[in-house]
Write a structure and sequence with these properties.
six-stranded mixed β-sheet, 4 helices, alpha+beta
Length: 143
């Protein structure tokens, strides 16, 4: 083994087991409880309310145009991060994210944010299967 082979960094990513499909009623219930937020220049903002159609499609929800109210940084508690599989290259749909939030945290989570998009992830084998991977952070915002 030469020096270059010894120094190669191998990234191992444990993928989520599957992409769940949920019915529209469960999707609306989850969306009512757990809202997307966005960071702009290290400040976090709530986003507009989205329709069922926007939840289901790869609507460009994660953009500055959709920001509404600034969130007090003292009220944000990080619960966990998880990896989310999705079909659209640039970003996951809201349905794809909400359907993959682990069941054991849906009772206390009330917000989420994409913290790593596919173009920032390295060594993705899932691209060959037509899937992409984002990292999602789950929050509890105390209001």
């Amino acid at each position: 083994m030469n020096t270059n082979e010894k120094n190669k960094k191998i990234n191992i990513i444990i993928l989520p087991p599957y992409m769940r499909k949920i019915d529209n009623n469960k999707l609306i219930l989850l969306y009512t409880k757990i809202k997307p937020i966005i960071s702009i220049q290290e400040k976090k903002y709530k986003l507009n309310t989205f329709t069922l159609e926007q939840l289901l499609k790869n609507y460009n929800w994660n953009s500055e145009e959709n920001k509404t109210e600034l969130i007090d940084s003292n009220s944000i508690e990080i619960i966990t991060d998880f990896l989310c599989l999705h079909t659209h290259k640039e970003q996951a749909s809201l349905e794809e994210i909400l359907s993959q939030i682990p069941d054991d945290i849906t009772n206390f989570a009330n917000a989420f944010e994409v913290i790593e998009a596919p173009e920032k992830r390295e060594n993705l084998i899932v691209h060959a299967k037509g899937l992409h991977l984002s990292k999602i952070r789950i929050y509890k915002i105390n209001e």
